[in-house]
Amino acid sequence: MSWFKREDNEIVNDAERTVRTEGLWVRCPTCRQVIFKADLETNLRVCPKCGYHFRIGARERITSLLNPGYELVDLDLRSTDPLEFTDLKPYKRRLTEAQDKTGLNDAIVNALGNIGPMPVVLSVMEYSFIGGSMGSVVGETIARAVDRSLETRHPLIIISASGGARMMEGIASLMQLAKISAGLARMDDEDIPYLSVMTDPTTGGVTASFAMLGDLNIAEPGALIGFAGPRVIEQTIRQKLPEGFQRSEFLLEHGFLDAIVPRKEMKQYLHQALVWMTTGQKEQAEQPA
């Protein structure tokens, strides 16, 4: 390999050129096309060639859905280590590393704002924080979002991106499934809309609880959605699974989802769904008994 080249009577260092361009391009894992990173960001991290949806963070998701001027809330909660859990490294160290990496206290962000003219409570999971796993802080934060919806009667939207319950917190994590589900049942009794949006991946206890309890269950294209992952299922039943098994398209075909909505259309779809749901409630209330 030549480290230096002569161009136009000047010596050019190939290594420096490589460093300057590093990180400017992204290869799509589906179509294998190389995409200019700025173009990918402009396109909400959706491949302009094949439509593959790259994963995005909670803050980026909130910005793409809510009108400017939204408010982030419930950010002060921090996980503890009730079991003093250690596997390859102590749980406390995992928490510190995830907090430094994401700038968040845990794998969830709540926001209050509007989608168009419609006020909503939005709760968004952060997959890059320990795989979006649901511990006691994630459960409490979503429960607070439910309480805000009950108090204000504003619709609730939860964006799921999770590997499931957080094993490092044991039963304290599993309790959150029932806690959130009970809150959503209260919302159903009060006829307050709840929309569940599932992104890649949504698995484990999150799928087994609030992710599948929406008045509308929506997913992004190509999202992996299920309880156990396909590799675990194949090892258990010792059979090859069908092509696309547990992807959102497969689930829609088999009646587990209500809609698949591309990321660029998600805001408009949620707005239209909420207008339809809240208008329907008003029309029913106005009808004579």
Give the helices and strands, then pairings.
Elements: E1 4-7, E2 10-13, H1 14-21, E3 25-27, E4 34-36, H2 37-42, H3 58-65, E5 71-73, H4 91-102, E6 108-115, E7 118-125, H5 136-152, E8 156-162, H6 171-189, E9 194-202, H7 204-207, E10 216-219, H8 230-237, H9 248-253, E11 259-260, H10 263-286
**What CATH architecture of the largest domain would you give?**
Alpha-Beta Complex
> Largest sheet, if any?
7 strands, mixed
Number of domains: 2
Backbone structural class: alpha/beta
Oligomer: single chain
CATH first level of the largest domain: which class?
Answer: Alpha Beta
Give the CATH H-level superfamily of the largest domain: 2-enoyl-CoA Hydratase, Chain A, domain 1
Bin the strand percentage.
Answer: 15-25%
Helix content: 25-40%
Q: What letter string, H or E per element, gives the SSE order?
A: EEHEEHHEHEEHEHEHEHHEH
Total helical elements: 10
Number of strands: 11
**Cα-atom Rg, whole angstroms?**
22 Å
What is the overall pLDDT average?
91
User: Which descriptor suits the 3D outline?
Assistant: globular
Strand order in space, largest sheet: 5-6-7-8-9-10-11
Report how far the terminal alpha carbons are from each other: 83 Å
Point out poorly predicted stretches: 14-19, 284-289
CATH topology of the largest domain: 2-enoyl-CoA Hydratase, Chain A, domain 1
